[in-house]
Amino acid sequence: MNLDEIVKKNSQELHIPPETYSKIITISFPQSEQDINELESAIKNTDYDVIKSMAHRLKGVYANLRITEISVPAEEIDELAKVKGDIEKIKDFFNQLNKKFKEVQEMFE
Amino acid sequence: MWKILIVDDAFANRQLILEILKEVAQCDVASNGKEAIEAVNYARDKDAYDLILLDIAMPEVNGLEFLHLLRETEKNAGIDLGEGVPVIMVTAHKKPFIEAFNEGCDDYILKPIDAGKLIQKIKDKLGDPKSA
Predict the structure, then answer these.
(1) Tens digit of pLDDT for each residue in B89-110?
(2) Which residues from chain A sit within 8 angstroms of residue B15, using beta carbons?
(3) What is this model's ipTM?
(4) Angle at CA B53, nearest 5°, toward B67 and B131?
């Protein structure tokens, strides 16, 4: 799907105008960037509490915005962090999330 | 219109709910439980909230701590449990927090938010919004 199709589909699901959807997603990027940076540092330090908290927030935001390519890896990280799971798996999911976030950010900016 | 307080630490979530409710509610926002309790206290004597939409996982004062403080304040003011301002938990957890219901939460909705369901849940608590 191209950007217009994504915006149209997601804004319809949310019952909001397409331009409002695009505005919300664009102005949300700074907080998400900060969360992703904190998540990356927490993974380096194996700080499961911070990993869980950042992944949980990203999961909620991108689930609401219907960007599942970001919310799904965030959810995997959240679940792994809850049980202090394999940090290598967490890194893999983080790389997926980060790559997709950059793609989405490029599309909208 | 309903008067609603939206409490969520994520900017995008607050903005989305504001947009979804803009035709039916006058909304204020708070980004954690500390700001929320300040907002509730400030509004109480002037124009109290009809309902609170509450995220659970938040920094500083989280949703559960906020609920505890809110219901304690209401209890001290002579308001019985179940008679205070309705609170609907808005959560990305797979299941609602049992602890939140123990603290006096009235209902829940899971993220991703469904706009229709959200408005219906509010309507179930408050009835139709009054004209502005």
Answers:
(1) 999 887 667 888 888 999 999 9
(2) 24, 27-28
(3) 0.91
(4) 130
